[in-house]
User: What shape does this take?
Amino acid sequence: MRANGRQRRTECGIPWRPLALVGLGTAAGLAVYRRRRASPRWRLLEQQGASDGDGRGAQRRAVVLGAGFGGLTCAIELAHRFADDPRTEVLLVDRHNYHLFTPLLYHAATGLVEPSHITYPVRAIARRHGFLFRESAVQALDLERRQVQTDDGPIAYDALVVALGSQTNFFGLSSVAQHALRLKEVPDAVAIRNRIIDAFERAELEPDPERRRALLTFLVVGAGATGVELVGAIHGYIFSALLDEYPGVRPQEIRIVLAEAAPEILRGLDRELAAHALREFSARGVEVRTSTPVRRVTPEGAELGDGEWLPCATVIWTAGIEPVGLVRGLPGEHARDGRVRVERDLSLPGHPEVYVIGDAAHCQLAPDAPALPPNAPVAMEEGRHAARNIWRRWQGQATLPFHYQSKGELISLGRHQAIADVYGVKLQGLPAWLVWRAYYLSRLVGFKNRLAVALDWSFAYFWRRDTARLEPQPLATAGSVPHEAACTAHE
Ligand SMILES: Cc1cc2nc3c(=O)[nH]c(=O)nc-3n(C[C@H](O)[C@H](O)[C@H](O)COP(=O)(O)OP(=O)(O)OC[C@H]3O[C@@H](n4cnc5c(N)ncnc54)[C@H](O)[C@@H]3O)c2cc1C
Assistant: This one.
């Protein structure tokens, strides 16, 4: 383009026309790249008009319930195995449209990461790998008619994978269910963070020493991996961030208690590593009370097993999990913890077309072996294996038994401390902490989340943690308080 015989230029002297061409070329290239990134199978589904998950164009359908670690891995594996088969539809169903990275949930609860940075939209993953997704809450399973009832209507299936995870187990203690906080979903993490910040805000204004003491006492119940990591993070949050911002609160007023009903913490872990965690906590002044069950919780405090009353405004329950009601209602034998016993190929006994995986499944690799623990690597391996067996059945081949070899444990204690048992190599202190951070950063779903969490951590490390009270969002509220209601209503 010329004006007055001269090429028009930007203020920096760059000619407009080549600049516009470069801009247009980049935009077009990006558009093509984005289009290419969607799998060929996805484009096929779009052309067939089957992307709403109603089965048009497909002759058989594998339905996966739950977009957690097990379900998501299973749906991706199924989509890859049936990538060249347009007759087969893979449909993933979850009540949330995001995948939650639970191992960093307690970082969201203690101002180390932004809650939105540990969730990832499932539809983006579905598009990339070529499966369908539906955001619906599952209400019932009709195994005879091969149908799943959801709040958006029924879904028929030819193969079903139940990966609905677990919920907090309060062991029938209604006062605990009513007054203690839990840590299972994003809104729970926001609620914990807000409760800790509220306690400091109120303590600043509270003249009565007894009342201040209760406000500044934090009780975590359950010394499994989640409870131990949470206690370490709460200690870090208080001592490296909140005390600086609340000058009216003195460090001596803080009391952090970890109560465990069993005689030891971190059951199942190497004893030397567990002892390191105990030493570390005692050096920081965290009270670890073993053989101390919590019997009752009120807004004022908690009653411990020996009748002792602990005044405290914050009680967080991490003492156990149980399968959701839908899983408890499945036919067949259930273990004492409610998980349904599955065959060696992960199918539900008597229903070779139904697979149960992850926290919902009680899977023993040998008759006298202990059940596999409810954790993310087990759920993911089971998800991959269930997909493989569905594929084999539909190829007319026999299904294969599941095998699993644990790679170890990584547990952060906060403040540059962690314990790790990786392939039998035991680490503690700073090296374990670095391994922990590197491992979980690499396991996060999506480059954007990895970058965001790395920045959150760096920001918290070199500058300060976030101490702003987060207003519960409508979505968060819908998932937190009514979570229980949802479980009752749907299961
Ligand atoms: C705070 C915390 C920290 C953890 N840290 C670790 C760790 O560091 N390492 C580790 O290995 N494991 C950890 N775990 C355990 C790990 O998260 C679970 O073992 C794993 O998520 C189990 O996978 P899953 O697929 O069975 O279930 P989940 O990952 O829980 O997924 C279940 C899915 O089902 C969906 N769902 C449930 N009910 C319905 C319904 N009615 N309708 C529709 N959708 C439904 C849920 O929304 C969810 O997306 C942690 C767990 C928690 C809570």
